[in-house]
Amino acid sequence: MFETIRKARRLAAIALERVDDYLELIRISVEIQGQSLKKRIISFVIVTLFAALSLIFLGLAIIITCWDTPYRAAAAWGVMACYALIAFVAYMGSQDKTRPASTFDTLRDEIRQDVKLMKDVV
Q1: Where, by residue number, does the polypeptide cross the bilayer (predicted)?
Q2: Measured between alpha carbons, how far is residue 96 from residues 36, 39, 88, 121 in Å?
Q3: Could you tell me which of 99, 57, 63, 67 has the C-alpha nearest to residue 78?
Q4: pTM of the model
Q5: To the nearest whole percent, how much of the chain has pLDDT over 70?
Q6: Are 118 and 11 spatial neighbours (Cβ–Cβ below 8 Å)?
Q7: How far, CA to CA in Å, does 86 sit from each of 51, 91, 93?
Q8: Residue 25 contacts by C-beta under 8 Å, 6 or more apart in sequence?
Q9: Quick check: helix, strand or coil at residue 106?
């Protein structure tokens, strides 16, 4: 009976010591996740903007180059077809992207280790 009480006290002490660590780890993980999301959104917007602008000006350059030739209509339709192909390839390529590891994996691993330790103590 006294052994069970001692084990319970040890488990309670371990749990109380780790609660602050868990809260700090959660706070840090949320900050890291937030900063990562902000950087991704900003870089995605910049890349999208300049990719769209470069494609538009490339298409215009091709059409203007072919303006005084009999291939003007073919050049315009070719530019449109290239845009559609690029959009399709970009869409298909984005479907295969894997998600980066979550920053909460560290918290989950720490909790698992502590649960294992508590099981060993009991």
Answers
A1: 41-65, 71-92
A2: 20, 21, 13, 45
A3: 63
A4: 0.51
A5: 91
A6: yes
A7: 11, 8, 10
A8: 106, 107, 110
A9: helix
